[in-house]
Amino acid sequence: MRKQTRQIRVGSIAVGGGTPISIQTMTNSRTENVDATIEQIRLATAAGCDIIRVSCPTPESTLSLRTIVKRSEIPIVADIHFDYKRAMEAIEAGAHCIRINPGTMDGFGVREVVKSARDHGISLRIGVNSGSIERDILEKHGHPTADAIVDSAILSCKKLEDLDFFEFKVSLKSSDVTATITAYRKFSERMNYPLHLGVTEAGSVFSGTIKSSIGIGALIADGIGDTIRVSLSSDILDEVKVGRQILKSLSLLPNSVNVVSCPTCSRTLIDIIKLSAAIEQSCENIPKSIKISILGCVVNGVEEAKQSDIGVFGFREGVAKIYLRGVEYQTITEDKICHVVMDLIDGFCVPSSC
How confident is the model at residue 169 (pLDDT cuts 50, 70, 90)? Predict the structure, then answer.
């Protein structure tokens, strides 16, 4: 059961209130380079990104944002630090949401941003990181503990509440996975704002994927979280792919192909590693709810195949059986498996629409 948080909007995307968990990433091109930034947004959108964040540290970047917003197919969040004027410019440029950390912006700046956001009917994101906690809170806790992160986030929420503004989501990120999980859980117990999940500065595509999957996955399994961003020192498309896979693994990504494959052993009769990688890559962006199993032998293969929409298992050396919706469909040689499976997917429809 997901926690029912307050619902806000980021452009056309609803966040919170039980709506589908949205996937985010962040451009890393110079925002002043409009064409490069738009190209990244286009690729991220095609990969399944729902909302994208763009950094706006200079007047030139917020000037470029006006064109970027117009050409983007998905909502834009402007990432602002320290200078409230950049936030004001980004709002005027058409940003659908502004990410700020009230702890790094003076009171006047926060008031001006809130007023402008209200006037333009857009939402905000309070982004608290372990590296940007208020000095007095940090001194109280000694170092950036989960409790320190929560105290900082609640203080930021109160600043916006005191201005009678409630259209915001909150993130409480740390590079420490345990601190991140604990902070989100504690905040969720006390507040009802939609939560943007992530493990900040998670690392390379290998280690960062593991950290993010543990942190984000544990929270979503608890019913916590309304939108996610996987932070990797890698191509932004990797962030989108990992985010989608996390949701898919928890059966929270509608209209997606779920590929199940065995880890291989000496009984394996077909090349599971090659086949599963090829089919998974080919199915990455196919908008159909299909379960495909690819197993190496008959030990688990038969029953797993029967339980899948499309099931493949090694029957003899280099030969496989294919089951379609629990019924034996075809026996084929290994070199034809990918082609046959993709043809079946192309013609596949869910029972309710057949």
Answer: very high
**pLDDT tens digits, 187-201:** 999 999 999 999 999
Q: Are 156 and 103 in contact (CB under 8 A)?
A: yes
**In the structure encoding, which two tokens stand for residue 137, read together?**
């809170």
Question: What is the Cα–Cα distance from 84 to 273, expressed in whole angstroms?
Answer: 51
Query: Distance between CA atoms of 106 and 213, rounded to whole angstroms?
Result: 35
- pLDDT, position 254: 82
Q: Residue 12 phi/psi, 5° resolution?
A: -85, -5
42-61 pLDDT, tens digit each: 999 999 999 999 999 999 99
Nearest CA to 280 out of 299, 303, 300, 256 is that of 256
Label residues 226-241 b or e (16+ Cβ within 10 Å = b): bbbbbbbebebbbbbb
Q: Which residues of 140-176 are buried (b: 16+ CB within 10 A; e: fewer)?
A: ebeebbbebbbbbbbbbbebbeeeebebbbbbbbbbb
d(CA 305, CA 314): 11
What band does 1 get if pLDDT is binned at 50, 70 and 90?
confident
Angle of CA points 288, 231, 285, to nearest 5°: 15
Q: Sign of dihedral through CA atoms 82, 42, 235, 75? A: positive
**Is 298 in contact with 315 (CB distance < 8 Å)?**
yes
Query: Residue 349: what pLDDT?
Result: 62
Report the distance separating Cα 270 and Cα 258, nearest Å.
20
pLDDT at residue number 255: 85
Specify the residue for token string 């909150």.
170
Is the distance from CB of 26 to CB of 234 less than 8 angstroms? no
Q: Is 291 left (phi over 0), alpha (psi -120 to 50) or beta?
A: beta
Please check whether residue 301 is in contact with residue 314, taking contact to mean a CB–CB distance below 8 angstroms.
Answer: yes
Strands (DSSP E) found in the chain: 8-10, 13-15, 22-26, 51-55, 76-79, 97-100, 123-129, 168-173, 196-197, 227-229, 257-261, 290-295, 310-316, 319-324, 327-333
